[in-house]
Backbone:
């Protein structure tokens, strides 16, 4: 179930937020999926799931994590340095992938990613593949954090703007401090007031939109409520809709 990986790179975005790049072969996976990392701590194996930030086809995996003060694994992961080893599950899994979205006339033209905190990871993985750019006329990432220092991969996201200037729209939400160009309100509130649509220049509707939400449960719950008021429905295999969800805890 577990194979040994070796840390080959780390980035500290803030005092708690960090990325690890781990040399390991987990085989094929789909962008948007997650992998389990594990360590034996005090004679007990602790495993947790982390979304893959890297796209398929790399010879390493990359995860974005936040060290939770009372967490069983994340503080330990934050102590890892280049050359240290970590147990990695042999296979990625998860359904936060473009394959799970409607592929027929219900697909829509606009793909919206709504993320808070470390949940931006799977969307970075997806956008580093050709699939969203080939399948949708517009790709929108709405990325919410409390403080600007928590905007991981910001420079990488700006590269998407340079590569796809007419196709990609990046909207930032920083709620605890002013940050130039960012919204100062939570994502569900920005949808409710219409600010998000105004910034993007597009409307959220059941005809044009596919919305993927990933992040803290409170954001997910409130955003779904607001989106449903706009006429969007949850995407299920038996009943395709426009809202696809993955909660992060």
Residues:
């Amino acid at each position: 179930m577990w194979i040994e990986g070796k840390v080959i790179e780390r980035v500290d975005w803030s005092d708690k937020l960090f990325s690890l790049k781990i040399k390991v072969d987990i085989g094929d996976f789909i962008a948007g999926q997650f992998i389990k990392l594990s360590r034996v701590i005090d004679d007990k194996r602790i495993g947790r799931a982390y979304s893959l930030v890297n796209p398929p086809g790399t010879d390493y995996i990359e995860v974005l994590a936040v060290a939770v003060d009372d967490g069983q694994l994340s503080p330990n992961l934050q102590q890892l340095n280049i050359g240290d080893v970590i147990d990695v599950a042999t296979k990625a899994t998860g359904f936060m992938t473009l394959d799970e979205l409607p592929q027929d006339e219900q697909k829509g033209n606009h793909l919206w990613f709504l993320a808070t905190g470390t949940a931006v990871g799977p969307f970075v993985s997806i956008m580093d593949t050709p699939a969203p750019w080939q399948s949708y006329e517009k790709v929108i990432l709405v990325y919410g954090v409390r403080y600007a220092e928590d905007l991981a991969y910001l420079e990488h996201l700006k590269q998407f703007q340079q590569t796809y200037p007419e196709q990609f729209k990046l909207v930032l939400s920083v709620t605890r401090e002013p940050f130039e160009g960012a919204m100062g309100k939570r994502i569900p509130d920005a949808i409710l007031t219409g600010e998000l649509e105004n910034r993007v220049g597009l409307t959220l509707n059941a005809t044009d939109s596919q919305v993927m939400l990933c992040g803290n449960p409170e954001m997910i719950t409130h955003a779904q409520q607001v989106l449903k008021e706009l006429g969007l429905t949850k995407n299920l295999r038996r009943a395709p809709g426009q809202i696809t969800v993955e909660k992060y805890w």
The mean pLDDT is 96. Residues 98 and 141 are 15 Å apart (CA to CA). The helical segments are 74-78, 121-127, 131-135, 154-163, 187-193, 195-200, 217-229. The longest helix spans residues 217-229.
